[in-house]
Design a protein that fits this description.
Distance between the termini: 19 Å
Number of domains: 1
Largest sheet: none
Strand content: under 5%
Helix content: over 70%
Shape: globular
Length: about 325
Amino acid sequence: MSESSTTTETIPKTALWQQLLPWTITIICFGYLYTKLSGAAARESVDLVDYLAAIFSRVPWGQWLALMIPYSLFFFLVDSLIVWRVVSWFNTPLRYLDILPIRGSSYILSILNEQVGKGAMGLYLNRRYGVPGWEVGSSMIFIMFCEFFYLLGWATVGWMLKRDELPEVFGIIPWIACGAAIFLAAWLLFFRGPLGKGASLRERPLFKSFREAGGLRYLTIILLRSPALLGAVFVYTNALHLFGVEASYGQMLGYLPVIFFGAATPGPMRTVAITLWVALFPGNEGEMTTFGFVQHNFFIFFNAAIGLLFLRRANRELFDGTENDPAATA
């Protein structure tokens, strides 16, 4: 039996329910949106296509692009700063400008899944700088770990500022924040304190970043990423006004961390994130469906366009001189 066939046979099959669950959630979300949009169109006595076309025609797209393009570029610079800071801490020293090509190129893969994009960055760092794969993975997990607390922290701030204007279900946010704070304290005690002393789990390469990261480093990543969210609050609030829907900066500060967290989650959660806009702004079904769809997809595809500008350089740095290397091909 060949090596390739042996490898294929050892890959565990995904359970049927795991394969069906993302499709089921997606279908439910689209069914919910269709029901809401059909009802809104019927109230205005027009068909669904004309209803959505009228919404598109009312948006001043030039002003909208003037908001979205600078913000997307700003987000790219902040996001690259996070990757540079973490990799320089835990893996290998490098210049900020050196991280831009691979971070930009990884946005192309992030069209499918943000975690796939991070995996591409891991491959790049392994191939170009010789950083062991498990240690790169540790840094990528550290970034995602901090992102959860960054979004939850700002969602909590938004809830405290505008709790009376937010849906009642958002009242669970401070409870989640309290639980997350307790978990983080235990996590730090395990990886940096006496709680995990002698535990084999703590010494695994996958947790290298967490062994080396004190609380100040978690806080640093949260603070470095925060300008991107505050910029998004400004941009999304004003973009929403262009769609004819009123919202305050405080409302958006409460909404955006939750929606961004859903959009960053693997699987069908991007569809859920778009659906959330409709649920959060009842009575504006068409505007919010259009807004959620356009905002989300523009952000993804414009970031991918940024990645195309760096793709040739990233490919050259990643594959130059390795075409005949069997290990590289593998």
